[in-house]
Amino acid sequence: EAQVTQNPRYLITVTGKKLTVTCSQNMNHEYMSWYRQDPGLGLRQIYYSMNVEVTDKGDVPEGYKVSRKEKRNFPLILESPSPNQTSLYFCASSLSQGALAGAVTGELFFGEGSRLTVL
Amino acid sequence: AQSVTQLGSHVSVSEGALVLLRCNYSSSVPPYLFWYVQYPNQGLQLLLKYTTGATLVKGINGFEAEFKKSETSFHLTKPSAHMSDAAEYFCAVSYFGNEKLTFGTGTRLTIIP
Fold first, then answer.
1. Does residue A100 carry a pLDDT above 50?
2. Beta strands, E only, A1-119
3. Which residues in chain B are closer than 8 Å to A57, comparing Cβ atoms?
4. How far is A77 from chain B (nearest CA, A)?
5. Which partner for B50 in A53, B33, B66, B88 could form a disulfide, CB atoms 3.0-4.6 Å apart?
6. C-alpha closest to that of B90 among B25, B2, B21
7. What residues in A contact B106, CB-CB < 8 Å?
8. A21 contact partners, CB below 8 Å, separation of at least 6
9. What's the whole-number average pLDDT of chain A?
10. DSSP per residue, A81-111
């Protein structure tokens, strides 16, 4: 089954304790991205990756790190979480578009979300 | 910077009535436009998209949207609402040469029996 898998789905942690949210996709997609969803703000892009070893900042990258060592995995790292990072996080993936690479024109496939609470 | 504006954070319609969810984008270059739906406790899934070609786009579950360049709009419609349409809907935009997909703030659709 084609899917994007995130773990953990729920996490409560404390300020400053490093954590990693894993994301894995089995569709051989080049493009992967992390979003956070907050009430009234919609989804905001944190980081994205067009392919292995290629990552770039989205609109709200502060306090987050990512890596893309393998095509299927795109972990989100919070080195020193703070309460303002309490949110619902989504990982997503998509095919690049060949000659149209350089734009997101294909369907994004989303994971089920990871709800993070930082105390 | 690319952006989309969704008018109305909450919309309520009666079952069987027309659904109209509004989305306007800001751009000086041709956009790629999307509508996604999020059911409770789930991730988002694509309803429909406009990239090139026909400006009236049909999606899943009876939804459609029309790209109107003169109005910079991409409103989502469905002729007859069903209880199962209750969800949150997001409009999104991207552009060639910009690898981001930017979402609006969402519209929560409630269906009244």
1. no
2. 4-7, 10-13, 19-25, 31-38, 42-51, 54-57, 65-66, 76-78, 87-94, 109-110, 114-118
3. none
4. 20
5. B33
6. B21
7. 42-43
8. A6, A7, A8, A11, A75, A76, A78, A89, A91, A114, A116
9. 91
10. --GGG-EEEEEEEE---GGG-SB--SPPEE-
Task: Nearest by CB to A107, from B43, B46, B97: name it.
Answer: B46
Residue B11 contacts residue B21 (beta carbons within 8 Å)? yes
Report d(CA A29, CA A112) in Å as an integer: 17
Tokens encoding B102: 């930017």
CA atoms within 13 A on the CB side of B62: 11
Consecutive H or E run containing B89: strand B87-95
- For A4-55, write each residue's pLDDT tens digit: 999 999 999 999 999 999 999 999 998 899 999 999 899 999 999 988 998 9
Residue A5 tokens read as 């898998």
What is the token pair recorded at A63? 């306090």
**Rounded Cα distance, A54 and A49, in Å:** 5
